[in-house]
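Continuing the batch. This is chain 6 of the set; chains 1 through 5 are on the previous pages. Same settings as before, nothing changed between runs. Recording input and output for traceability.
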Amino acid sequence: MDSLQIDMATIKVATDDFSEKSRIGKGGFGEVYKGVLPNGQEIAVKRLSRTSSQGVEEFKNEVLLIAKLQHGNLVRLLGFCLEDDEKILIYEYVPNKSLNHFLFDPLKQRKLTWPERFKIIKGIARGILYLHEDSRLKVIHRDLKPSNVLLDSNMSPKISDFSMARLITLDQVEGSTNRIVGT
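Output for chain 6:
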């Protein structure tokens, strides 16, 4: 985990000190900023709100899970920061935003061809299959929705936001929960 830790000074430089012009998204969890690391790599910085319902436990869950999961249809975690009472996740930058930007915008939805839509559907299915069957860990995402499916420069989908994900045992076929989460 230490190799994934990125210091706050590097993140502030990458995002121009979390400037408004670097902000690319906002949700109940906090804000997302586009940044550039000193080596030129573009990143997405998810800065969790201090009033966010995602606490330290969910943060650790997301870091531990994503660090262990690697698949072409899952967003790649590059690092994290836990400094100055901040909880920050650093991901690969995915330029085409989320699927909901295309599905719910009348102009953009017309730009999605049927072959592109089919490619997106297959990519999401491959990512879910990996999580449920093919990874070393068996993971239930619990919050899969269009805003949590990011599209890269080739319009390939990448499942994101594992804060509500749950690990289950490899032989487990059913389970129960004490609280309802996600979508």
